[in-house]
Specification:
The protein is built from 1 helix and 6 strands, in the order αββββββ. By secondary structure, it is mainly beta.
Length: 72
């Protein structure tokens, strides 16, 4: 591996660890932040929470960045 991909971690560093991940739900309307299938970067919307993940999964990483991960 040292001869084949010696710079892989430098060129493609590991992703930061998630502090929190899951749905971002409005408790009053029961709607979740949703990408609605739009590409990144894009405008998000709010749709009824379905609980299946996918376009409604949000993660907060150690660097305090928000990311819609698309994890199913």
């Amino acid at each position: 591996m040292d001869k084949i991909a010696y710079d892989v971690l430098y060129s493609y560093p590991l992703l930061p660890e998630n502090q929190v991940w899951g749905e971002a739900k409005n408790l009053h309307s029961s709607k979740c932040i949703d990408t609605m299938g739009r590409p990144i970067p894009g405008i998000v919307g709010a749709t009824p929470c379905h609980g299946y993940g996918g376009n409604q999964v949000l993660s907060i990483v150690i660097r305090r960045a928000f990311a819609l991960t698309g994890v199913i």
